[in-house]
Amino acid sequence: MPALEIDDLRVTYRGSRGDIPAVRGISFSLEPGDTLGLAGESGCGKSTVAAAVLRLLPADTEVTGRILVDGEDILTMSFGKLRAVRWAGASIVFQGAMHSLNPVHRIGRQIAEPIVLHENVTAEAAEKRAVELMSQVGLPAWRARSYPHELSGGQRQRVMIAMALACAPQLIIADEATTALDVMIQAQVLKLLKGLVSERGIALVMISHDLSVLADTCEQLAVMYAGKLVEQGPSKEVFAAAKHPYAAALSAAFPTVGDPAERRNPHGLAGDPPDPSALPTGCPFHPRCPVVMDECSSATVELRHARPDWRAACLRVEDRAATTTTTAMALGEA
Ligand SMILES: Nc1ncnc2c1ncn2[C@@H]1O[C@H](COP(=O)(O)OP(=O)(O)OP(=O)(O)O)[C@@H](O)[C@H]1O
Predict the structure, then answer these.
(1) pTM score of the predicted model
(2) Is the ipTM of this complex over 0.85?
(3) Residues 6+ away with beta carbon under 8 Å from 276
(4) Beta-carbon count within 10 A of 105 CB
(5) Radius of gyration of the chain (CA)
(6) How far is the CA of 21 from the centre of ligand 1 (A)?
(7) Which of 52, 75, 85, 259 has the most neighbouring CB atoms within 10 Å?
(8) How far is the CA of 53 from the centre of ligand 1 (A)?
(9) Is the pLDDT assigned to residue 203 strictly greater than 80?
(10) For the segment 132-174, what is each residue's pLDDT rounded down to a tens digit?
């Protein structure tokens, strides 16, 4: 059974100046142990997808479609059931650790809290587990007695990661979870997450603006534009030779995987992402697209398979598939 199954998810915020369709029909699923990186420019809807999975969106937000976590329908379950799923079934690590921690409780107690809540263990046993988790994310045991304000931003972020791991969930969503950490700690935490997902069969959705981190950590890469997936496939291949021109431009702006010192030629993308409440007709990327054709401004462009494990929403997928194959053959990889 998939650890996470999202089927035609649509999320519309109610704004004072009208509705904002932030997510416009997204589907994907992850088996236990699968890792998916979700990328895209600011405002494309990545965090909205993350928040929808644990029903953390503002109350008046319209959400349709299906979200199944371990087979259970998140959107229709009772609040009591939802509380049981949060932390133990699925947990989220957001970037803003500062605001998520309780300022008046010590760190050790806060990490222990979800363990006490979900498992039949004493506070003492839970605090012992908390210290073990802290060492896994690179925090010394004595920090268990510190208060949040005594920690740096990076240390607080590691506390949040320890909390997310505390109840051994089947699904972890990391939303820019390591972005604020320095390079060494980021590498350490990413290695830890990678190790845990493969050892324990945890499914991981990692959201980041940094495509090279995603390609390095996740097996699959999904790229969003204007509330939709425009490409999803094996991450290293997508990163190296994306089939959607937006995903290609995004990849080109990041250092090559495995060699952060090398920067590929960024093809600068003109313009900004569209306002979700005033989207262009046809393919929403067409006004910025370097390979736009006449029909792109009117055609409805859905995801189509370039390969069984690779899909992209571009009328030119077949052209680009041909180009990629030719290049791979020239390099002796096909
Ligand atoms: N609570 C909210 N009320 C109204 N609109 C919102 C709300 N949260 C997000 N939005 C809008 O929904 C769209 C998608 O936002 P979202 O935060 O999901 O994007 P994102 O890709 O995660 O961006 P970032 O990388 O900046 O976090 C944006 O247009 C944003 O302004």
Answers:
(1) 0.88
(2) yes
(3) 20, 21, 22, 43, 45, 226, 227
(4) 13
(5) 21
(6) 10
(7) 52
(8) 15
(9) yes
(10) 999 988 899 999 999 999 998 778 888 988 898 888 899 999 9
